[in-house]
Amino acid sequence: KERDYRGALDVYLTCFVAKTEDTDFTLHVFLPVMNNLAQCCLQLKMYHKAQQFCTLALEEIHKSSNRQEEQLVAKLYFRRGRAERLSANYQQAKSDFEIAMNLLEKESMEYQTVQREMQLLQRAENEERRNEKRQERSMQRLFGSNGNEPTPGNGSMKTESVISDSKRREAPSRLYSDCRENARTY
Questions:
Q1: d(CA 127, CA 140)
Q2: Nearest-CA neighbor of 120 among 92, 80, 93?
Q3: Which of 8-17, 68-77, 109-118 has the lowest mean pLDDT?
């Protein structure tokens, strides 16, 4: 059964037309709607929007000093953390996951879900570090270990014909992107 997240997004957004400052409305309509909007955005890979909806809801909770719904607050931190992880904002994701875990009971399924997400976060951080090291090694092979031009015998002449003299004079950002493309052929 396919879910219509775009349609749900439209329905939830119409709830903002009726928004009032009433505490009951905020607690029972606005906050759950924001939570559901964030989930729809996550499903649609609209991570920045998901972060924004969670942040708006959390600000509303802090503004009204209404901390009665710890489960909902934990979900908001979890969803924002997930959006941040998927956007590669790892430090912010870790912080939100830790807050969510502090609000949940350790034996609960929700706590275990946040723990699994933390494991995915750690894997993503490790993979990012490995990729950075690979890129650094590729750059060293390409330009030589001391940052000089490639020389015969150091393994970096393979790309000499690909990177012309005119490209070497271009802006460093353009050269860097060319180098990353060439490094993938190794």
A1: 20
A2: 93
A3: 8-17
Query: How far is the C-alpha of 182 from the C-alpha of 173, rounded, in Å?
Result: 14
Phi-psi region at 115: left, alpha or beta (left = phi > 0; alpha = psi -120 to 50): alpha
| pLDDT of 63 | 79
Give tens-digit pLDDT for 93-115: 999 999 999 999 999 999 999 99
Check whether 127 has a pLDDT greater than 70.
yes
Q: What is the 3-state secondary structure (H, E, C) of the chain?
A: CCCCHHHHHHHHHHHHHHCCCCHHHHHHHHHHHHHHHHHHHHHCCCHHHHHHHHHHHHHHHHHHCCCCCHHHHHHHHHHHHHHHHHCCCHHHHHHHHHHHHHHCCCCCHHHHHHHHHHHHHHHHHHHHHHHHHHHHHHHHHHHCCCCCCCCCCCCCHHHCCCCCHHHHCCCHHHHHHHHHHHHCCC
**Nearest by Cα to 55 from 185, 41, 172:** 41
Q: What are phi and psi of 153, to 5 degrees?
A: 95, -15
